[in-house]
C-alpha cells in the first residue's frame, strides 16, 4: 500500500486545483484580446474598412517580422527602454527617500505633503510645455517626465506602507534598543515592502506611459516616435506594430515585477 503525498500550491489549494485556477484566470484574460483579434480579422476579410485604414492581420504580421529582422523595431524599443530605466531609477529613488522621510517624521510630512500633493495633481504631460522652455526637447526633458511619472506613486505608497507598520513591531525594536537605522532596516522597510512594491509597479507603469507620451511630442527615436511618424506617413500597419510593441513591453515589465515580488515574499517566509 503506497501513500501519495499531495503537493499543495498557493493558498493551500491542491496543486492541480491551483493550476486549474491559474489556467482559468489566464483564459479569461484572453477573451477580450482574442475577441478583438477575431473582429479585426473578420472586418479586414469582409472589407468593412479599406486596407489603408485597417490593414489585415497578415500584413501587419509581415511588417512586424520585417521590422524585427531589419533591427528597426528592436532599436526603437531599446531606446525607449534605456530612457525609462534611467528616468524610473531616478524617480523611484527620490520617491522612496521622500516617502521614508515623511513616514518617519510627521514634521517633514506637515511641511512637504501639501506641496507634494499639489505637485501630484498636475498631469505628467502637463509639465512638458514649461520644461521645453527650461531644458529644451533633448534627453533631459524625457528623463524628467519619466521620473515625475514614477515619483508620485512611489512616494505615496512608501508613506502608506511605513504608516501601516504595526506599532507592536516598533515597540519590539525599542525594547531591543535598536538604533534608528536598525529600526528602519529590520522593521520598517520589511513591513512596508508590499506597499513599496505596489509603488514600484504603479511607478513603472506611469513612467512607461509618460515616456511614450513625451516621445510622441518631442523625439526622433523610440517607440513613441515610431508611432507618431508612422501615423503621419499613414503607414497604419507600422502604427499597429508599434502599439503592439508598447503593450507587450509594458506587460512584460509588469509581470517581471510581479514575479520578483513573489520571489522576495517567498524568501522572507523562508527566513522566518
Task: Outline the structure in words.
This protein has 272 residues and is mainly alpha-helical. The protein has a single domain, classed as MetI-like fold. Helices cover 81% and strands 0% of the residues. Helix 3 packs antiparallel against helix 8 and helix 7 packs across helix 8. 28% of the residues are buried. The N terminus is likely disordered.
Question: What's a quick, concise take on this entry?
Answer:
This protein is mostly helical. The chain has one domain: Orthogonal Bundle (MetI-like fold), CATH 1.10.3720. The two termini are 36 Å apart.
From the structure above, extract its key features.
single chain; 272 residues; mainly alpha; MetI-like fold; globular; disordered N terminus; MetI-like; Sulfonate transport system permease protein; cell membrane; membrane
SSE topology sketch:
Blueprint: H1 15-45, H2 57-70, H3 72-104, H4 106-121, H5 128-135, H6 139-163, H7 167-175, H8 180-217, H9 223-232, H10 236-271
Instruction: Supply the CATH superfamily name.
Output: MetI-like
At the first level of CATH, the class is Mainly Alpha
Q: Which ranges are low-confidence, i.e. pLDDT below 50, for 5 or more consecutive residues? A: 1-13
Structural class: mainly alpha
Helix content: over 70%
Shape: globular
Helix/strand order, N-terminal first:
HHHHHHHHHH
Strand content: under 5%
Measure the end-to-end span: 36 Å
